[in-house]
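Section 5: illustrative case.
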């Protein structure tokens, strides 16, 4: 809770500073929809997404269309300020451990989601109607939610184990946006982003049999990712633009669970 309050306060201070730097700096809002496919990593050991623990691992790699990112940019002519968020499709998998000669097998239904929030300061290099690159550097907050339902072989199906875990990780991010004019109103655009964050993963397991039991555990963990986008943008008016292309986000570093890719469509409005 303290971290979230700190982020809100920092955003307000930064926005106030950005407004003070230039009263006529436009505010740009961008919304990105994407048709995203998740690809699981067989070598993942992150949280409960750990195929090596099971005799059988069956991920559900489904395509999903939805809001993938949102970004608010205070577009100062030299030093823009960006507040953004990214959301990823829910990950689902089933892991099964076969019964041993002296033990009991079980099946785990696992699902989870990843969210990332960035606050960054950039600098424009280049001018409008010419190639321009904007590097970004700032802070990131990554939230990963996991859930696991375990059912034992031959056990009472009304008494499974329910587990949940939340990871709130703080770190740094960097990246760059680039645009190259190709004809009046049309630009080739690209993006690169890198994030690293560290924090605690807090897990809770609730078992109903043989007696109600709750077990909590907290561990330190970290994540590293990188991503890229390539596409084209059309500035239909001075205050409205549309971009389309392909985006990729790799969350398999630090033994992370999956990567995400797919086509995107972005709408931008400047005020």
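Designed sequence:
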């Amino acid at each position: 809770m303290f971290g979230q309050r700190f982020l809100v306060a920092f955003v307000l201070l930064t926005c106030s500073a950005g407004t003070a730097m230039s009263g006529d700096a436009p505010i740009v809002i961008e919304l990105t929809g994407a048709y995203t496919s998740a690809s699981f990593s067989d070598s993942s050991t992150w949280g409960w997404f750990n195929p090596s623990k099971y005799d059988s691992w069956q991920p559900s790699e489904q395509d999903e269309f939805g809001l993938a990112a949102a970004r608010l940019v205070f577009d100062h002519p030299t030093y823009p300020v960006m507040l953004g968020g990214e959301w990823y499709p829910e990950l689902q998998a089933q892991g099964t451990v076969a019964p041993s000669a002296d033990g009991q097998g079980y099946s785990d239904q696992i699902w989870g989601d990843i969210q990332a929030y960035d606050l960054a300061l950039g600098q424009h290099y280049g001018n409008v109607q010419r190639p321009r690159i904007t590097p970004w550097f700032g802070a990131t907050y990554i939230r990963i939610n996991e859930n696991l339902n375990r059912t034992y072989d031959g056990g009472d199906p009304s008494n499974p184990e329910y587990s949940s875990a939340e990871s709130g990780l703080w770190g740094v991010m960097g990246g760059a946006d680039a645009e190259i004019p190709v004809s009046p109103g049309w630009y080739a655009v690209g993006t690169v982003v890198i994030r690293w964050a560290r924090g605690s993963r807090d897990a809770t397991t609730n078992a109903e049999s043989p007696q109600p039991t709750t077990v909590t555990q907290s561990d330190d963990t970290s994540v590293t990712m990188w991503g890229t986008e390539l596409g084209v943008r059309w500035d239909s008016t001075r205050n409205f633009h549309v971009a389309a292309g392909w985006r990729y986000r790799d969350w398999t570093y630090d033994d992370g669970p999956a990567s995400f890719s797919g086509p995107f469509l972005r709408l931008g409005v400047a005020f």
